[in-house]
Write a structure and sequence with these properties.
Number of strands: 0
Helix content: over 70%
Strand content: under 5%
Number of helices: 2
Distance between the termini: 30 Å
Order of helices and strands: HH
Number of domains: 1
Shape: elongated
Largest sheet: none
Length: 69
């Protein structure tokens, strides 16, 4: 059972971070090509703000014991 759970978590982590990278790539491409509208810029800012506050400040700090120094 533990093996299946760890296999799933490995798959999910790769998929999840891949999705995040795809979103950031999209925002960057829009900016580079000059297609960054004010609405997309505002949405990007809001999503990054929420990610920084909620994900990094809360979730990632709990992962500190897993990170090698």
């Amino acid at each position: 059972m533990a093996r299946e759970i760890l296999d799933f978590l490995q798959f999910y982590a790769k998929w999840h971070f891949g999705q995040e990278e795809d979103c950031f790539d999209r925002f960057y491409t829009e900016w580079q090509t000059g297609n960054m509208t004010s609405k997309l810029a505002e949405r990007t800012y809001n999503e990054l703000e929420q990610w920084l506050v909620n994900h990094m400040a809360r979730t990632d700090t709990q992962l500190r014991p897993c990170v090698k120094t």
